[in-house]
Amino acid sequence: MAITAKQVNELRQITGAGMMDCKKALVEADGDIEKAIDLLRKKGQKVAAKRADREASEGNVYSYVSDDATIGIAYSLNCETEPVSKTEEFKVLGDNILKAAIENQSESKEQVLDAEFDGKKVSEHIIELSGKIGEKIEISDYALVKGEKVVSYLHGSSIVVLVNLAGGASDEVEAAGKNVAMQIAAMKPLAVDKDGIDPATVEREKQVGIDKAREEGKPEHILDKIAQGYVQKFFKENTLLSQQYVKEPKQTVAQYLDSVVKGLTVKSFSRIGIGR
After folding, report:
1. Which distant-in-sequence residues (6+ apart) come within 8 Å of 252 by Cβ?
2. What's the CA gap between 254 and 274, in Å, rounded?
3. How many whole angstroms separate alpha carbon 51 and alpha carbon 59?
4. In the chain, how long is the greatest CA-to-CA distance?
5. In this structure, are residues 170 and 156 in contact, taking their beta carbons and an 8 Å threshold?
6. 129, CA 20 to 30 Å: which among 138, 149, 208, 275?
7. 97 vs 28, 82, 150, 219, 273, CA distance in Å?
8. What pairs with residue 149 in β-bridges?
9. What residues does 63 pair with on adjacent strands?
10. How far apart are CA 268 and CA 240, in angstroms?
C-alpha cells in the first residue's frame, strides 16, 4: 500500500526515528502504526546487539541526594562518541532514567533497567535510542548510598562522587563532605580504609615488596618486614582516610575530618567516572 507523508511524520513524532526508517517500517507493516513501532523497536534491539562489543567510553554522569541528605543516587549513561552525549535526546534520556531510579529507589543497575517511565522499561528506552542513533548506549555504573549524611559532588559531566559521612550533619559537615568528595574525584582511592581492600590485593603488594627486596640483595630474614613497609605505603596512597589531604598535605583525610567535627568520618563512598 502507498504510505503517505502524514503517516511517516506521525510515526516520526511518536518514535523519534529517522524519516527513511519510519517509511520502511510503515511499508513493512502495511501502514499499521502500532506494527511499525514494534518493527522500529526490533531494529533498535538489533542495533544494540550488533554493537554490544563496541566500547562506550563517552557519556554523562547524573546524581541525586534526598532533601534530608540520607539517600544518594549516582550513575553514568554511556555512549560511543562525545557528540551523541551532548545531544538533547541523550540528556533527556539520562534525566528520565535518574527520575525512574529515584522513584523506585533502585538498589542496582538491574533494578534501574527494569524501572519504567512513559509506559516502558528503562532498558526499552535505551534500546530505542540506540536503534535511532546507531550507537551502543548503556548504564555502565550505578550506586545507591544510604547514611546519616550523604554528600554529592559533580565534576562537570564526567565524574560524580557520593560520600556517606557519619558524626554530624551541619552545614560545616556538608562543606567537609564536598572537600572529601573532591579528594576522591582527584585521587581515586580504592577503599575507605585498609579493611576495605581485597586481601588478594594486599598479598600481591606484599609479594612485590619481597621480590624487589630480594632482587636488591636484602637478607631473607628481613624480607617480610620490608614487604610490610610496601603494604603500609600502599594503604597510605590508596585508602581514603589514610591519604594526604590534598588541600592540606600535612594532614590525612581522617585528621582533616576530625578537625572539622570530632569523630566525623566517612563510612562509604562511590566514585563514578566517564573514561576516568
Report:
1. 241, 242, 243, 244, 245
2. 28
3. 16
4. 88
5. no
6. 275
7. 31, 19, 21, 59, 17
8. 165
9. 74
10. 10
Flag whether the pTM goes above 0.85.
no
| CA–CA separation, 176 and 257 (whole Å) | 7
Cell of 192: 575507605
Q: Which domains does the chain have, with CATH numbers?
A: 5-50 (1.10.8.10), 52-146 (3.30.479.20)
Contact 85, 58 (CB under 8 A): yes
Alpha helix locations (H) across the chain?
Answer: 5-15, 19-28, 33-50, 82-85, 88-104, 109-114, 122-133, 171-187, 199-215, 223-238, 253-260
HSE-up (13 A, CA, CB side) for residue 21: 22
Residue 259, C-beta contacts closer than 8 angstroms, at least 6 positions apart: 251
Rounding to the nearest 10 degrees, give the CA dihedral for residues 62, 68, 171, 166.
-90
pLDDT per residue over 54-88, tens digit each? 889 999 999 999 999 999 999 999 999 999 999 99
User: Rounded distance, CA 101 to CA 103, Å?
Assistant: 6
pLDDT tens for each residue of 199-257 = 999 999 899 889 988 888 999 899 989 989 989 999 999 999 999 999 999 999 999 99
DSSP 221: G
Core vs surface per residue 40-73: b (16+ CB within 10 A) or e? bbebbeebbeebeeeebebbbbbbbbeeebebbb
Strand order across the 159-166 sheet: 149-155, 159-166, 265-273
User: Residue 123 CA to chain centroid, in angstroms?
Assistant: 16
Q: Which residues contact 36 (CB under 8 A, 6 or more apart)?
A: 11, 22, 25, 26, 28, 29
CA atoms within a 13 Å half-sphere pointing along the CA-CB vector of 243: 21
